[in-house]
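Incident review: delayed structure delivery

Summary: a single-chain prediction request sat in the queue longer than the usual turnaround. Root cause was a stuck worker, restarted by the on-call engineer. No data loss occurred. The affected request and its eventual output are reproduced below so the record is complete for anyone auditing the incident later.

Affected input:
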Amino acid sequence: MKIKLLSFFITLFLFYACKEKQSENIPTELNYIYSSSVSQIILDENVNRKFWVRIPKKTTKNKYPIVMFFHGNGDEAFNFYQRSSEIKDLIDDGEFIGIFPNGHLRSWNCGNENSKANDVEFVNMIIDFLKSNTQPADLMDYDKIYGIGISNGGLIVNKIAKETSLFRAIAPIVSQQSDVIGKTISKRSLSVFQINGTNDDLIPVEGGNSPVGHVFLSAKNSAENWAVNSKCDLNNLVEKSSIWGDFKVSSFSYINCENSHVVSYHLVDGAGHQSNYGLGDLIYNRIWNFLKEY
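Output delivered after worker restart:
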């Protein structure tokens, strides 16, 4: 595999320069969002696939969990990162290291997108790259990798989670599994925090044909499919009502699953295809409080 380094070695130099200063008791701020790329063959063409890594400004732990964030169709990784002050705050609070992969042609290939890249392979290449090519890899806990995705990004998170053993838990936002992904048997049990808007006209909560070209399972059936794959007791379903920002939310959780996992889906009443539920609603904090338990 050919690896192309962009700003990586500059970042490594700064990182270890700071580490040396730390040993001299000089206060250090690590404030990185740095990029690199891996080379992938797409339709017989060699393409450099970029991803971004964000490390906490102050590293106070030996190991950090890894959260991979997948943008929606038409977006880009760095733009998504720049808009996400809540995610930056979580990283700088020392909760995790964030990885932001960039979709080819601004999309993730789940079977009907502009991109024809193998994105499951791409994500595995990123992790292999980080393990073997970066000295800051000693900050990353590769046994605790999580996936969060919005819309098309949520669909690829489902696909990666079904086809690999990479993630311990996932959070697909305004997306559920397509019928094709639903037929795949997962390689491991895992926890799921799925979010759907009841008025979503792009990826319908009741499933079926979608304007994006996929046929989706309903939100309920997608979660139930994950519950079956995670060997949950389907008769043990906990229901709860709450308020997220400006919206009422009905939550359903399968709690008796293999290895103490939980599969949950959350229906945001009146919400469309959106991940912002009003002033003061900290959606990524809510998601992370769930994911980090697994």
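Verification: The chain has one domain: 3-291.
Action items: add queue-age alerting; document worker restart procedure.
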